[in-house]
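Anyone up for a design puzzle?
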């Protein structure tokens, strides 16, 4: 993400990997407050972000606020402060997780101290699965297939914990289909916000947050990857993987912050029952030809709307990218 090699050495040759990347600036307002130039520099990031988040909550405690805190950790290269380095007794990755856990605790404690916790929605989630070829500097996909960089469940299925006392039932587990794209319309509905007039990709999942066991606001999902490649479609429990190439972490992983090797693999058409087989190990398309037929139709609907690079299709619903001038 910035011109530093896995060893920690700066990369100055623009022809090398990361060599053309800029130094990582920390921006406050419109001003560069600090530059991250070394692996040691980034050890302070989790604590620094937490301090800024707590300060933001305190300054805005008397009015509605929205805090978005995307921690750099536990993405590689890992960094952890002295107060957590070596404290887990297991690995640096565990130390980093422990510090992120501390960060969440600081925010929850601040909300409680200011008597805001009963009227604040807290969402904790991630953007993708673990980068497994980094070995002891990466997490686990917990039995799911593959990891970051693929459309298999190990790449896209992530934890999501939502807290809103008095509104979201505690210790409630939901296995319905949802995505981070659904957070926008859900929060807009709760706050009385107006959605844009053009189509959006999310749907409100407030019914799931309310603990409605019968609710199913989202029945289908499209697994787009790369620039615009439709690699799979899902309808409730069924996931149809479409033929495509993908990066596999099957070889031995790296260690100590260095990556292992990867291989390019490919898959043909395959049907998985994610309720019974979340690890996508058993292709059951021969047993359920009608399900395959219906999901192929779903894929066609996606291609007609959004296009598909794999089949060289242009969708009618594709809108131009937003640009700053």
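Challenge accepted. My sequence:
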């Amino acid at each position: 993400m910035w011109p530093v090699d896995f060893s920690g050495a700066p990369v100055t040759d623009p022809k090398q990997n990361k060599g053309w990347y800029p130094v990582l600036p920390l921006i406050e307002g419109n001003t560069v407050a600090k530059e991250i130039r070394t692996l040691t520099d980034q050890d302070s990031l989790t604590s620094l972000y937490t301090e800024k988040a707590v300060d933001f909550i305190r300054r805005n405690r008397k009015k509605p606020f929205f805090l978005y805190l995307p921690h750099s950790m536990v993405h590689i290269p890992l960094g952890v402060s002295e107060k957590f380095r070596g404290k887990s007794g297991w690995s640096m990755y565990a130390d980093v997780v422990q510090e992120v856990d501390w960060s969440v605790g600081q925010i929850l404690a601040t909300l409680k101290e200011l008597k805001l916790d009963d009227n604040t929605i807290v969402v904790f989630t991630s953007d993708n699965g673990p980068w497994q070829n980094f070995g002891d500097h990466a997490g686990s996909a917990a039995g799911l297939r593959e990891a970051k960089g693929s459309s298999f469940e190990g790449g896209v299925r992530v934890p999501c914990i939502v807290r809103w006392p008095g509104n979201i039932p505690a210790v409630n587990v939901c296995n319905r289909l949802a995505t981070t794209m659904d957070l926008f319309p859900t929060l807009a509905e709760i706050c009385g916000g107006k959605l844009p007039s053009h189509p959006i990709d999310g749907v409100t999942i407030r019914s799931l947050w309310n603990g409605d066991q019968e609710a199913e606001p989202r029945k289908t999902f499209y697994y787009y990857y790369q620039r615009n490649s439709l690699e799979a479609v899902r309808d409730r429990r069924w996931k149809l993987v479409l033929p495509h190439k993908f990066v596999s972490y099957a070889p031995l992983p790296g260690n100590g912050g260095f990556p292992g090797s990867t291989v390019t693999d490919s898959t043909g058409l395959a049907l998985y029952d994610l309720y019974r087989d979340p690890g996508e190990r058993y292709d059951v398309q021969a047993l359920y030809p009608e399900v395959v037929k219906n999901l192929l139709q779903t894929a066609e609907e996606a291609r007609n709307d959004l296009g598909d690079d794999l089949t060289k299709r242009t969708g009618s619903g594709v809108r131009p990218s937003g640009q700053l001038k």
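A detail worth pointing out: The longest strand covers residues 229-235.
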